Amino acid sequence: MPATVSDAALAAAVDALRAGLLVGFPTETVYGLGANARDPAAVARLYAAKGRPADHPVIVHIVEAADLARWTREVPPFAHLLAARFWPGPLTLVLRRATGVRDAITGGQDSVAIRCPAHPVALGLLHAARAAGIDGIVAPSANRFGRISPTTAAHVREELGNAVAIVLDGGPCDVGIESTIVDLTGPAPRVLRPGMITGAALAECLGAPLGAADATAPRVSGALPAHYAPRTPLVLLAAAECKTHAQARLAAGDRVALLASAHTAQTLGAHAGLRSVTAASDADGYARTLYANLRALDAAGCALIVVEAPPSGAAWHGIADRLQRAAQGHTLLPD
Ligand code: TXA
Ligand code: MG
User: Fold this and answer.
1) Of 70, 134, 182, 289, which one has the greatest count of Cβ atoms within 10 A?
2) Separation of 146 CA from ligand 2 center, angstroms?
3) Measured in angstroms, how far is the CA atom of residue 279 from the centroid of ligand 1?
4) Does the Cβ of 143 fall within 6 Å of ligand 1?
5) Whose CA is closest to atom 22 on ligand 1?
6) pLDDT digits (tens, 9 = 90+) for 171-209
7) Which ligand has its closest atom nearest to the C-alpha of 111?
8) 276 alpha carbon to ligand 2 midpoint, in Å?
9) Segment 33-54, tens digit of pLDDT
């Protein structure tokens, strides 16, 4: 069960939002860095705190699907279907923006991304904010640009320090990786960022096949190859190579961090230079702990992180996506 926070803590967070300050808060996916979506100065502060380029749009979090019409100029039938089935939950919808929705939120695009999160603290904050006249909270993941997303309140403090006025502590996030993003502005719905809601589940709900992502797809900063990267170089390898690669590096005197199945970790055995974390064998459990595991391994002072490739299969798609990006990150990230 996620932790809850007091009404007084929620009231203080809403006061901070009204003052144009930033609030860290838990969602079921990852922690968000929240700002009043209608306050351009607060949104500018948010981009500065994250170190995020201005053309990378953010997600507007709303308290219920009925508020979609405040942010979008049309709510197509597909949006109603998906919202009814998956909200509150780890799904973001990209829709045509309403007039008055600022370029600062959309990266200058004609679309806006909207999500209704399921975490009780997020919903409590959104309720209290709306009662105070704030009908949307923009919230990117509360990490510095290109870094591992936070899944605890302590991670948010590590990432952003005093740039964030208040961090609401709702315990560790349950889903663990960012929401699935679906674009509903084109001829067919398409997934822009895979997550724990699978393409198959979306297609089944819609009763229609999904379109393929293409070059005209709206920009998704999470789709930069270098996203979600630890500082330590990370390699993603199949089980057998995982073992031989780790052994070779250990033999060469390197300290090695390993994220692998219990079986692979066992066959490698104990070694003074090896810091090993056993990954869950189910996709939900793996995702829930992925970012905390990567943070711990990143902090272990090793020369590299070796990650055993997760199983194939639709349930693992979002996880595989994040790992592939993390594996590319150390060569591409300016950091
Ligand atoms: O699970 C989540 O979605 C978390 C929690 C805090 O809600 N938020 C999150 O935000 O992951 P962020 O900013 O780290 O990622 C938002 C993604 C970016 O990849 C951004 O490019 C995409 O949403 N996005 C936002 N507006 C968009 C738009 N109008 N069209 C296409 N992509 C958009
Ligand atoms: Mg992010």
Assistant:
1) 182
2) 7
3) 26
4) no
5) 220
6) 999 999 999 999 999 999 999 999 999 999 999 999 999
7) 1
8) 26
9) 999 999 999 999 999 999 998 8
Q: Taking residues 94-100, what's their average pLDDT?
A: 97
| Start-to-end C-alpha separation, the chain | 35
The domain tally of the chain equals 2
Residue 279 falls inside a structural domain: yes
Give yes or no for residue 318 CB within 6 A of ligand 1: no
Is residue 226 situated within a structural domain?
A: no
Closest atom, ligand 1, to C-alpha of 52: 13
Q: What is the mean pLDDT of residues 76-87?
A: 98
Q: Please, which residues have CB within 8 angstroms of residue 57's CB and are 6 or more apart in sequence? A: 105, 106, 107, 109, 112, 113, 218, 219, 221
Q: What is the pLDDT of residues 109-141, one digit of tens each?
A: 999 999 999 999 999 999 999 999 999 999 999
CB 165, CB 33: distance < 8 Å:
no
202/286 same-domain check: no
| 36 and 125 co-located in one domain | yes
* 141 Cα to the center of ligand 2, angstroms: 4
Residue 126 CB neighbour total at 10 angstroms:
27
Question: By residue range, what is the domain housing residue 184?
Answer: 7-206
Tell me, what amino acid is at 263?
H
pTM recorded for the entire structure: 0.94
Tell me if 49 is assigned to some domain.
yes
What is the average pLDDT across 257-267?
94
Average pLDDT for the chain: 92
Pocket test for ligand 1, best of 181, 228, 321, 322 (most atoms within 8 A of CB): 181
218 Cβ inside 6 Å of ligand 1 = yes
Contact by Cβ (8 Å): 59, 48? no
Contact 136, 70 (CB under 8 A): yes
Side chain identity at residue 13, one-letter code: A
Is residue 220 assigned to a domain? no
